[in-house]
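FW: tagging you since you asked about this chain on Friday. Here's the raw sequence from the shared folder, copied in full. Didn't touch anything.
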Amino acid sequence: MPGSLSAFTERGRPHATALFRIVTGLLFACHGAASLFGVLGGAMGQGRTVPAGTWPGWYAAVIQLVGGLLVLFGLGTRTAALISSGSMAYAYFSVHQGEALWPIQNGGEPSAMFSWAFLLLVFTGPGAWALDRILFGSGDRGEDAEAPAAARREPSAA
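HL: got it, structure written out here
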């Protein structure tokens, strides 16, 4: 019985990774759209936009929108996730860390969570359903290229 759970989770891993990628990319893109276009509550929930070209807010919002969309659709996932992760680490340490030590105290939970979530995608790849794979064939194969041969083999019918 434990072997069947392991086999199930291994078969489902590319799909779970893809769902994680899609949700994370969508939420990140929403942050960028809110800041750039004033939608979904606007920048900082105040219904406004970030003035174009202002450092670091406008640049962060562009990274959020573009990086989030690239990750959402699985286009250059590892590169987009690396840039997005770094952007959120910068946001955490430059904006939040000075207020208090822990993210729960300094309001930096979203920055910390996005930073770690994107760093995970750098190492796991996009999972299933990535446009890179559909459009370019090989694309960023992620777990398919790294799975041990035993995990890729079909179970034998005993």
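FW: The radius of gyration is 18 Å.
HL: agreed, and The chain has a mean pLDDT of 86.
FW: great, closing this out.
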